[in-house]
Amino acid sequence: MALIIAGERSGVGKTTVTLALLSCLSRRYRRVQSFKVGPDYIDPMFHQRVTGRPCRNLDPVLTSETYVQACFKRHLNGVDYALIEGVMGLFDGASGRDDVASTAHIARLLNVPVLLVLDCSRLSRSVAAIAQGYCCFDQSIQVAGVVLNRVGSDRHLELLQDALEPLQLPILGVLRRQDSLTIPDRHLGLVPTDELTFLDQLIDQLADIGETCFNWERLLPLLRAEIHDLTVTNQPLNTSVTQSVTRIAIARDRAFSFYYQDNLDLLQQLGAELVPWSPLGDTTLPEDVQGLFFGGGFPEVFAQELAHNIEARQAVWNAIVQGMPTYAECGGLMYLCQQVTDFEEKCWSMVGILPTEAVMGKRLTLGYRQATALQHTPLVLMGERVWGHEFHRSQLTASPEHPLFETRGYDPKGKVGIEGWRMHQLHASYIHLHWGGTVDIPQRFLKCCQQFNPN
């Protein structure tokens, strides 16, 4: 079994509760595995920093229900305890009309109980109505108990306990208001772990809180990494297309850090050697690489440093012009533009391969996308449909003459758009892809890289 942390809504403290549990578990035990529901990059960074193990994303839209089950089962092997952090409110799904891809969906799919986090900062007796509503809304969801977050005083706690007592719903945790316990955020969520100098102290503080605020006697049996009533057959991975090691330069620094661990694992299993390099600090590409991989991140925050590293920008430009297969997602796409205009309206030169500019703004582009390829690239075939996710506050000043994708939102009646660039052997798009359900994509990319010959 494992436990899934759900909230009544976004912002109730799911991440704080999850990190407190993980910090305390990791202090006591070595083998703790975490998971995150949905298309998230930053929360998994915090999980990994606490547990020392990569967090795994569980997203049935980007992959499939079968893949979610297989991923969960695979990564429970060899661990003692497991914890899943949910997304938004318990029943909030991708469309808003049902609970597909919600925390509840994953709880049913994996047959795991829910620990419901309630924000009690402006509640007393009403907490019982909220808790009862969540418990009764879907009888197939097992609510194992609640965590009362942001409790103000002993008197406040007494009122909450009295209100919940008739429901016979276990209170498995009580977190007092912690004004000093804050993780800074910015325009796309929490500030990533590599930028926080005080993170080790924060983890220790969370572990100390976790020792005293949770009912561990009741929680530990729920958190044990055991699988019940989940029958999944793992499909063997066909690695026949990769008969030799393929060196891929992967941008990994403060500006580029958004990668699904499963994608990196697939590349390595298929025969790739991932060679980290920094567009911020390195002046050349790694030697003897046959492909480039730029994930998302925050190039707008570090645009000045990226612009000043002229040697790195020129090296990337030369490699792409020579035909080196290159995959760039979101922030990676921005880095390949002519320039980036930051939130202060300052313009910074970038690689310059794409004939467009990325301009930061207030508008948030967010949501799942079904993308149909309009041409062949090193990753997709013309006519192929893939599910991806967009999450950015930048807009491009020019559209591609020959777009890469036709896109549609999760709602099939939604607006149709075009986006993405295909130049040389470059696949650049705002759309983040998870390859768990589409192994053909990394296989094509590596095969294309193997064929690259700069001479």
Q: If you had to describe this structure to a student in words, what would you say it looks like?
A:
Its cofactor is Mg(2+). The protein has 455 residues and is α/β, with parallel strands linked by helices. It has helices spanning 14-28, 42-51, 65-76, 103-110, 126-137, 154-164, 199-213, 216-223, 261-269, 303-308, 310-321, 331-335, 440-450, and strands spanning 3-7, 32-37, 56-58, 81-89, 114-119, 143-151, 171-176, 185-186, 189-190, 246-251, 256-258, 272-277, 291-294, 296-297, 326-329, 339-341, 347-349, 357-373, 385-396, 405-409, 416-419, 421-423, 426-429, 432-433. The protein has 2 domains: 3-223, P-loop containing nucleotide triphosphate hydrolases (Rossmann fold); 246-450, 3-Layer(aba) Sandwich (Rossmann fold). The protein has 13 helices and 24 strands. α1 crosses α7 (199-213). The radius of gyration is 23 Å and the shape is elongated. The model has no long low-confidence stretch (mean pLDDT 94).
In total, the number of domains comes to 2
Instruction: Please give the CATH class of the largest domain.
Output: Alpha Beta
The chain-level structural class is alpha/beta
Helix content: 25-40%
Q: Got a strand count? A: 24
The H-level CATH homologous superfamily of the largest domain, spelled out, is P-loop containing nucleotide triphosphate hydrolases
Radius of gyration: 23 Å
Strand order of the largest sheet: 3-2-4-1-5-6-7
The coarse overall form would be elongated
CATH architecture of the largest domain: 3-Layer(aba) Sandwich
Strand residue content: 25-35%
Keywords: ATP-binding, Cobalamin biosynthesis, Glutamine amidotransferase, Ligase, Magnesium, Nucleotide-binding
GO molecular function, one term: cobyrinic acid a,c-diamide synthase activity
Family: Belongs to the CobB/CbiA family.
Enzyme class: ligase
